[in-house]
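Task card 7
Instruction: Convert sequence to structure tokens.
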Amino acid sequence: MTGLLLVHGAGGSVEGHFGGLTRRLGDRFRYVRGQLPDRVGPGPDEVVDGFVAAADAAGAGTFAVCGYSLGAPLAIRLAVRHPERVSALVLTAPFAYPDHRMRLALALWRGLHETGRHRLLAEHLALNGLGGTFLDATDPDRL
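Output:
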């Protein structure tokens, strides 16, 4: 069975960023959740080594890696660090380096999260991460 490691972006989750894809994959692929840590501390090498450990636990010897947004540079790092494990690399909405806008956004997200303002953080991420058409079609109670 083909292995697929899914690495989500900041402010999201594997289900949130790849839920539609995983439902379509069914049992044709063994997919592994590359869950980003929910705490500050682990460096990128420790994070990608954790992804490999998750793949090992799922029985995926080699695997394709799909990284979304912040997950894209981590997917690249994983492929460079463990080239014998990665059979393919898919980068979705990647960025080459954090610019000033991204640094400000990350500082804002971290501040809202660390001060317990999770709802405000979620609203900010929805406003900036989802298109107007999608937001307008969404039940206001779900926002």
